[in-house]
Structures are given as structure tokens and as C-alpha cells.
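Weekly sync, protein design subgroup
Attendees: M.S., D.O., the rotation student, P.L. (late)

Item 1: inverse folding check
M.S. brought a backbone from last month's batch and wanted to see whether the design step gives back something sensible before we order anything. D.O. pointed out we never logged the input encoding, so this time it goes straight into the notes. C-alpha cells as presented (59 positions):
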């Protein structure tokens, strides 16, 4: 059950990053480098979620 809660937490963080990216993209004085870093973080979270789901499904 700990794995399920960890995956849920990662999904929450992924969703929060998605909202922050959307907010930054629509802000007139947004920093492209900051947005790029947020997108990298979001991708890392997605990859971690997929990896953990694969581990869970294989067990």
C-alpha cells in the first residue's frame, strides 16, 4: 500500500507542476528557462510514475 500512496503523491506533484507551467506560459513576463526546468521536472515525475507502475504490475 505504501507504493500506491507514493504513486498518488507523485501524481499530485505532477498535476501541480502542470498547473504551474500553464500559469507561467500565460504570464506575460514568464522566464523561458524556468518553464523549461519545470517541464523537465514534470517529465522526470512522469517517468518515475511509469516506472513504479511497471514495478507494481510485474509483482
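Designed sequence read out in the meeting:
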Amino acid at each position: 500500500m505504501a507504493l500506491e500512496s507514493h504513486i498518488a503523491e507523485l501524481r499530485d506533484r505532477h498535476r501541480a507542476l502542470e498547473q504551474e507551467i500553464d500559469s507561467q506560459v500565460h504570464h506575460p513576463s514568464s522566464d523561458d528557462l524556468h518553464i523549461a526546468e519545470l517541464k523537465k521536472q514534470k517529465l522526470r515525475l512522469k517517468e518515475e510514475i511509469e516506472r513504479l507502475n511497471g514495478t507494481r504490475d510485474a509483482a
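Discussion: Residues 32-58 form the longest helix (27 residues). Residues 2-58 form one domain.
Action: P.L. to compare against the previous round before Friday.
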